[in-house]
Amino acid sequence: MDFFQLAHACKSVICCRVSPSQKAEVVELVKSRSKAITLAIGDGANDVAMIQAAHIGIGITGVEGLQAACAADYTIAQFRFLVNLLFVHGARNYKRLVDVILYSFYKNICLYVIQVWFAFQNGFSGQILFEKWCIGFYNVFFTSAPPGSLGLLNFQCSKRSRLNIPTLYKDSQSRRHFNIKVFWQWAFNGIYHSLLLYWLPVFFFKHDAVFGTGQSGDNFFIGNIVYTFTVVTVCLKAALITTAWDFLTHIAIWGSILLWFVFLAIYSQVWKFVPFSAEMYGLANWIYSCPAFWLSLFLVPLACLLRDFVWTSLRRTVSPSLVEHVQEQELKNEDPSLYITLQYKRSKSQENIERTKMLTGMMVHDASSMGIVPPQQPAETRKDWLPPNSGFIDIECFVIDYQPEWVRSVQSVV
Amino acid sequence: MSSEGAESNQSRRPKNTAFRQQRLPAWQPILTAKSVLPIFIVIGVIFIPLGVVLVITSNNIVEVEIDYTDCTPVPGSSLLPTCKDMLKVDPKSSCRCDLQFEVPRDMTGPVVIYYGLTNFYQNHRRYVKSRDDDQLAGMARSLLELSDDCAPFKGINGTAILPCGAIANSLFNDSFTIFYSSNSVKVNWTKTNIAWDTDKSVKFKNPPDDYFNRTVKPPNWDVTVNKLDPEGLDNEDLIVWMRTAALPSFRKLYRRVTHEGVFKDNLPKGNYTLEVQYNYPTYLFAGRKRVYITNLSWMGGKNPFLGGAYLLVGSVSIVLFFVFLIVHMKFGTKQEALLGHPRY
Lengths: 414, 344
Description:
The structure holds two protein chains of two kinds. By secondary structure, chain A is mainly alpha-helical. Chain A is about 65% helix and about 5% strand. In chain A, strands 2-3-4 form a three-stranded parallel sheet. In chain A, strand 3 (about 55-60), helix 4 and strand 4 form a beta-alpha-beta unit. Chain B starts with about 30 loop residues before the first helix and ends in a 5-residue tail after the last helix. By secondary structure, chain B is of the alpha+beta class. Chains A and B meet through helix 5, helix 10, helix 11, helix 12 and helix 14 of A and helix 1, helix 3, helix 6, strand 11 and helix 9 of B.
């Protein structure tokens, strides 16, 4: 067994009396030999090498100066803030980032794939269904606030729960919400929505006689109607993803939808004053006075999002994740760890058994070679110096140092 | 970051506002089977009656569709068996044909006439941009000033075309007359208010009179724009045609029936004759030509899809209500037993 395998088998490893370059070497060893993401935290100049070698370097400002803080990716004021940094801000911001990325792909797939469906009906000539500035402003004005609120303000459960239940951190570690499969699920969802968003209005408006006064529509009439439905659907999808609604979230989502309606009304008048976008002139008057438009406005986004809504609710009822359980407990003002103790009892897994065995053997060997445990003692009594509940509490610890006095003092603690 | 660090410098502390410290009060909705049950019932209760109303409204509309592409010409007006063949030989010729049709029920007013084309891609990119909106709005644009998008219908022999572009050039020029067969009464109609009023008042205006002399008509037209009926760029048929349709099969509003005399309240049930002045060649794009005679409701013409979609979504919602009820019984209550308290 080599050094890395042994170290990797331990829950924690103490390396003492190491030089700064050796600190960096330990980090690089782990980085090169395993797929783990490494985090290094330190407060002194001697930690700079280690901080920069790790994937995430954290510097603590304070007693030993600012060198570590300057070299770090994140800086905190006290060591104990590390828990908050990881479990609260780290976990929350990871989920927020994931939501923003997946949502951004989804909303753009939704809009642009509609043009693909239209291409089948315009002889693949490249005619756009929506007006060019409406397309341009889609990501700038009408659908930029929802991912903003998802990325800045959204959260699943309270800070207290995240600190008290470290198991919640596993969600981000295991990439449960952000992997290739999830990405394609979002992409296909976007394509499915784009299908409904194009074909439903086409069926409702294709006979052209949609006004009580008999006039017929045109390309940009249907185009802006489809665009309206798209903006509404995409913003409501963000609303479905949002798990925490504060007033800014409300403004972001409803405000975006309102902004489009106002923009359409204003943009439809522009050509009278400025020689620009003649094709838009008068559209708002006709769209807003069309009963079929208002009727399908209540139908089309709902039809699109019905599947999302049903799936989310059913999945949550049938097999809720830990986060969802914690959410529910919190909202009932109950202690969320109630669920943990029922479901997540620490059990002595096979892995732990193997590790304990291997470690016991190693440590006895080393200890005996150092003259701590007499080698002639029988095997069973050699385990006396392990603490009584070691299987449950896991205090496997490998000491890399050859100062006999230091080893003895550590042993007494262990 | 917690603001509890007692040793940290007071001025370097982050601001302790609800927004900065992420303490904004938030509503956290829980979407489980039980909590969303009311939503499905509400949707079902609203959508199904609405769908029924829409379907009934649509069914009450009487619509007559007449495909006259292959109509036989009246004796003497053509040498070939159909008007279509005649136009194939000589696209500039005119052919007349008569068709009989029946209105199955009394068509209560207001009654309107549409013409429809199939396989005509008014939504083709090159076609849609082939116009000059400034010229149409009344600016006297010379050949050089005209938009290049109008090409190849920009000018002939150095003279600008009015109105330029492929859209104007392909103006639909079939005309119709309808007679009520029982006493050969002609159905009168108007062509006011068939175009969008926003188009007519702003986008289409006549240029100064002398501009008409400096321009020529588009190649496919029989007369110049100031000889149209009514004359000028604000001819509503032209305006309606220039509103390019979104799909290859489309309808455009042709006329509004004037409700007077026999047709005061409705177009009575019975036999009618449609006289077509067949000018528009469709063999080039293998399209069909149709006339639609329909009455209008508050929703417009016949639209079974909207009502049907409402009924469908409403029924799906009711079905989902029961599905969710069963799911809640089966899974929600199981977890209640485990946790010792009700699920959300």
